[in-house]
Amino acid sequence: MNRIKKYISVILCVVMFVTCIGINTVHAEQATHTGTVNVSDALNVRKGPGTNYNSLGTLSPNAEVTIYGEPVTGGDYKWYKIAYKSGYGYVASNYIINVKEIPKYDYNADFEANLTKQNFPESYKVLLRKLHAAHPNWVFLADHLSMTWEVAVREESKVGKSLVQNGVSSIPDSWKSMADKAYNWTDGKYVSYDSGNWVTAEREVVEYYLEPRNFLNENYIYMFLDQTYNPNLQNAEGLQKILKGTFMEGEFPEDTYETYNDVIMDAAKKSGVSPYVLAASIIIEQGVNGTGGSISGKIKGYEGYYNYFNVRAYASGGYDAVTYGLIYAKGSGSLGRPWNTRAKSILGGAEHYATGYVKRGQDTLYYKKFNVITPSFYVNQYMTNVQGAYLESSKLKSAYSSVNSDAALTFSIPVYKEMPSENKTALPTSKGANNYYITDLKVNGSTIEGFDRYKNSYEMIVSKDTSSIAFSAVVPSGASVSGTGNISLSEGKNTITLTVTAASGKKANYTLSVFREEGGEDSAPEPTVESDYKIGTYVSGITIGTNVGDFVKNFGVKNGTAKVFNSANQQKTSGVIATGDKVVVYNTKNEQTLSLNIVIFGDTNGDGKVSIVDLARVQKHLLEISLLKNSQNTAADTNRDGKISIVDLARVQKHLLEISQIAQ
């Protein structure tokens, strides 16, 4: 008995040790090296060492791989055995660069205790242990964020929020969104949201660049690095590594400084922002060759004005992004404006970046792109390029290679609520478009009532004599569909699902709920509403910009249907939800059972958004020039205290200035 207890004790100790150091029991073999995928599109992962083996999947460009042992020969290539998903795979070694030996991680009780104290998830710990083995003095801080992972992905994926460049070979169509307002079906073009033809990124692309665990490696950990200026860690030598090969490598074209290195180092000292970050930002904004119009000094009407950091350079008021940014540069006031010299633009832009971002908490490249850290979430984001933090982090790595590798760098790493236990995000690898939007949906040969390509769910009622329907869909070129045909119906509710697969491989489901009347004269069951929205005397809690289809879907009617009507009592099947709309609930016999007005707080003119027009309407109400009535009056009471006051006016102003958002 004692011997059995002893064996059990030993086994438990081994299990506890394995758990502590995070060994993946599936990958029991000892990893030896890491490397970086060097392809322009995607790299096949094979089941064995040769092209005759089936593909297990693909790896994205610049992905980091974990290698086991030396390459083996298979056909015309040599192959690395790598960790892939929960097992192993093989990749051609000639497509793997930056192969480095993995430093052995010796279990460190203090380091492990610190990770646990900060509540780093286990999936983070596995990656941080590798970094700790190579850089034992690096400090990793867990930023536990207030939002869930799903909410962050949804908000950062909204149309116009995170962009990719259109018309370049490195960005396939599968990376581009074709959602409502992201694609123009009339001219067949993606909608541009920034100069240079930048278009909305597909959700999976946003999710990949938002996922912190994709970048906890030697190449990209720098996107989480503290951006404040530290003369012990940042110097002119490191800065020159970033500037080398760019338009800023040599002399400064003005008498105030000898070189770009000199002016950027001075801007860092005065603003308190890392010179490496400032340099990387300028290169991203103006290009390696400095071809950005914002620094040409030759734009008509704005000759001699410069905007190196593209401050407020976005299309607005009929102006393109460059011109609108130069309007700001030509203005007077703070930050040394007008920026009528290159030096003023660099110094003033650095101070703008310091006060507008670094000093308010957006103090890493990651938070600079994705504002998930300050109270006005998802706004005040320095760049729309979804790859921005990723691209700039590689430049920082180059600069910090001049610093002693034992330096105690500090990295603030975001941890979202309700994250998946393991990172499963990957970039789309197909070049095909994400066009899974059906162009027509028919029942018995006729287009279904309320059809809209962006609407994914439909409902209809048929008589008890209808035993089947013919269900068909017209899909775009290159897409396929399943789930159509002659469908038999049972009495009561029937749910029919069809799946469209786009050329990119992405799938979308469309559902049709058919209510077949039951025999007899029994009354229809009372509909019920199970919704995340706030339902009382009116419906609120609706995110600004929510489209009609999503609202109806999320309204959650059971044993019935919901329809939206505008203030003129006309049914809305597309567009966005606005103040003055109403939602009407019907039972399975199409009898109305409930009608509620809808309120979007801050939207007083009923267009579904908060604009300068709404600010003016609240002002006129307070001055008793023109009084708001009914739902519009309720929408103006943004703090819900039962009256409209100067406080409500201020809240609308702050919303427009992106200082704080009006809660719904």
Shape: globular
Largest sheet geometry: 6 strands, mixed
Category by helix and strand content: alpha+beta
Query: How much of the sequence is in beta strands?
Result: 15-25%
Q: How large, in whole angstroms, is the Cα Rg?
A: 29 Å
Show unreliable segments.
1-28
Helical residues, percent: 25-40%
Question: Strands of the largest sheet, in order across it?
Answer: 25-26-31-30-28-29
Question: How many DSSP helices?
Answer: 16
Total beta strand runs: 31
How far is it from the N-terminal to the C-terminal residue, by CA?
A: 65 Å
What does this structure look like?
- The structure is a single chain.
- By secondary structure, the chain is an alpha+beta fold.
- Strand 13 (192-194) and strand 14 (198-200) form a beta hairpin.
- Residues 1-28 have low confidence and may be disordered.
Give the secondary structure arrangement, pairings included.
Blueprint: H1 2-21, E1 33-37, E2 43-46, E3 55-59, E4 64-67, E5 72-74, E6 77-84, E7 87-92, E8 96-101, H2 109-117, H3 122-134, E9 139-148, H4 149-156, E10 163-165, E11 183-184, E12 189-190, E13 192-194, E14 198-200, H5 203-210, H6 236-243, H7 260-271, H8 275-286, H9 321-330, H10 342-356, H11 365-369, H12 388-400, E15 410-417, E16 440-443, E17 446-447, E18 457-462, E19 468-474, E20 480-482, E21 485-488, E22 492-501, E23 507-516, E24 528-529, E25 534-535, E26 538-540, H13 548-555, E27 557-558, E28 560-565, E29 571-572, E30 582-587, E31 592-598, H14 612-622, H15 630-636, H16 646-656
Parallel strand pairs: 9-15, 18-23, 26-31
Antiparallel strand pairs: 1-4, 1-8, 2-3, 5-6, 6-7, 10-14, 11-12, 13-14, 16-17, 16-19, 19-21, 20-22, 22-23, 24-27, 25-26, 28-29, 28-30, 30-31
Helix pairs in contact: 4-5, 6-7, 6-8, 6-12, 7-10, 8-12, 14-16
